Amino acid sequence: MIIPKDISRLGIVIEFKKLDPDDEETLEETADMALKQIKEKKYSTTLEGRGVKNIKEIGIVFKGKELYIKERT
């Protein structure tokens, strides 16, 4: 999580996931699961509690040398 000192700036919540090469899920599906986890576990409430209103949620997935990033504002 990146918490800005100035609450009018962007706050960022990042969830990282790693896929093993033999996993059946796709990178995109796993990124969706990362964003879902951010929402379900209410990770953004820390930022909201500090008065940050502009929050970006990012799911980053690695599979070997592949990388997939999905975001939600």
Report on the structure:
The chain is α+β, with helices and mostly antiparallel strands and 73 residues long. The protein has one domain. Helices cover 26% and strands 34% of the residues. It has 2 helices and 3 strands; from the N terminus they run E-H-H-E-E. A 3-stranded mixed sheet has the order 1-2-3, covered by helices on one side. The radius of gyration is 13 Å and the shape is elongated.
Rg over CA atoms: 13 Å
Number of helical stretches of at least 4 residues: 2
| Envelope shape | elongated
Low-confidence stretches: none
Query: Which assembly state applies to the chains in this document?
Result: single chain
State the major sheet: 3 strands, mixed
Sketch the topology as an H/E string, one letter per element. Answer: EHHEE
Spatial strand order of the main sheet: 1-2-3
How confident is the prediction overall: mean pLDDT?
93
The computed structural class is: alpha+beta
Question: Helical proportion?
Answer: 25-40%
Task: Provide the number of structural domains.
Answer: 1
How far apart lie the N and C ends?
A: 14 Å
Strand element count? 3
**Strand residues, percent:** 25-35%
What's this model, at a glance?
This protein is an alpha+beta fold and 73 residues long.
Task: Annotate the secondary structure layout.
Elements: E1 11-19, H1 27-40, H2 45-49, E2 55-63, E3 66-72
Parallel strand pairs: 1-2
Antiparallel strand pairs: 2-3
Keywords, separated by commas or semicolons:
73 residues, alpha+beta, 3-stranded mixed β-sheet, 2 helices, 34% strand
